Amino acid sequence: MKMVKIVIFLIFFSKFTLASFAVYYGNISASSNINELSKFDLLILSPLVEEDYIKELKSKNVTVVGYLSLATIGGWEPWAEDVPDGIIIGYWETWDEKEVDFSSPQWRDIVLNEAVPYILSKGFDGVFLDNLDYVDKYPEKREAMVKLIKAIREKYPDIVIVANRGFSITKEIAPCVDYILFEDFITYYDFNDNKYKIYQDADLQWVLAQAEMLKKLNVKVLALSYVDLDNEKQVEEFSKIICKYADEYGFEVYMADITLQRIGLNPCENFTKSQVASSETKIGGENKNICGSGAILLLVLLPYSLRQLILR
C-alpha cells in the first residue's frame, strides 16, 4: 500500500510543489491590508503580529510562519533579553543587529525552548529561519547550525519550516525543512550605492549555480527578488528576467522592496489556493526522524507534508 501511495505522489509531485507566498514585516490591519495578504497561500511575518490577525489569516486558509534569525539578535525580539553578552561574537552594521554564537548551548536552548515556543504560542503554523548564510562567515560553526535546524524539526515535527538560503548546508537540511527561500534571486539591493540591481556576469552565474543545485535536490523553492515598487519601468524590466529564470528552475517568485514593509507581488503568474499544506494536514504525524542519516532517498526528495502522509 505504501508503494502505491509513493507512486501516486510522484505522479503529481510537480503539480503541487509551488505556492504563492509573501514576505511582509509591515503593519497588519483588519481594515486595510489583511484581505490583500489573505490572497497568498503562505505568509512570512514578524513574530510580533497580533494573535487575532494570525487567527483571521489562518481562517482564510493561509499558512503563516513567524520570523526567527538563527544567527543574529536585533533587540526587539521577546527572547532578546535572555541572550547573554558572552555569546555575542560580532555586529551586523547594515541591519544594526548583534551576531550570536549559534554553536553555543545557551543559544540552542533559547531557540528551542523560548523563541520557537513563543512563535507557535501566537498561533503561527511554523517558523522562518533567517541568516543561515552565517555558516559561511563562521565555517567552524557550520555543523552546529545544521544540528540546530535538525533539532528544531525533531522537537517540533509537525510545524512548517522555511529556511532562508544557507546554500552551503542545503543538502544536509533539505530533509528537515518544507521550503528553501532563495533571497536575492536574480535581483538585489546594493547597499553601497542604494540601488536595485540585476546580478551580472560572475555574480549571476553563481546565483544560477545555486538555483541548479536546488533544482537537482528537488526542494521546494520560494524565490524572493527585490525591486523598487514605485518604479514601473524597473518592475517591468526586472520581472521579465526574473520570470525567465523562475520558469526555467520551477521557482515561485515574490517581488518586493528591500524594507519588506509593503505588500509586493508575484510578477510571473497567479497560483490557486490549497497548494500549501495547511497546518491541519501536518498535525498528528509521527516523527519518523527523517533528518537522520537513515532517511530514505525517495522520502528526502518529497515535500515534508507528503512524506508524513506516506509514512503514516
Quick tags:
three-stranded antiparallel beta sheet; alpha/beta; 12 helices; 312 residues; TIM Barrel; eight-stranded parallel beta sheet; GH114_TIM-barrel; Glycoside-hydrolase family GH114 TIM-barrel domain-containing protein
Mean pLDDT: 85
Strand content: 15-25%
What does the largest sheet look like? 8 strands, parallel
How many domains, in number, for the residues?
1
> Helical element count?
12
Task: Specify the structural class.
Answer: alpha/beta
Q: Report the strand count.
A: 13
Low-pLDDT ranges: 1-18, 270-289, 293-312
What is the percent of helical residues? 25-40%
Q: What is the CA-based Rg, rounded?
A: 19 Å
Descriptive notes:
Residues 51-261 form the Glycoside-hydrolase family GH114 TIM-barrel domain. InterPro entries: Aldolase_TIM, GH, GH114_TIM-barrel. It holds the Pfam family Glyco_hydro_114. This is Glycoside-hydrolase family GH114 TIM-barrel domain-containing protein. By secondary structure, the chain is α/β, with parallel strands linked by helices. It has a single domain (2-311), classed as Aldolase class I (TIM Barrel, Alpha-Beta Barrel). Helix content is 37%, strand content 19%. It is built from twelve helices and 13 strands. It has helices at residues 2-12, 34-37, 51-59, 105-121, 134-137, 142-155, 170-173, 201-217, 232-249, 279-282, 297-301, 304-311; strands spanning 21-24, 42-45, 63-69, 72-73, 88-92, 97-100, 126-130, 160-164, 179-183, 187-190, 195-198, 221-226, 252-256. An eight-stranded parallel sheet has the order 1-2-3-7-8-9-12-13. Helix 4 (105-121) runs parallel beside helix 6. The longest helix has 18 residues, at 232-249. It is globular, with a radius of gyration of 19 Å.
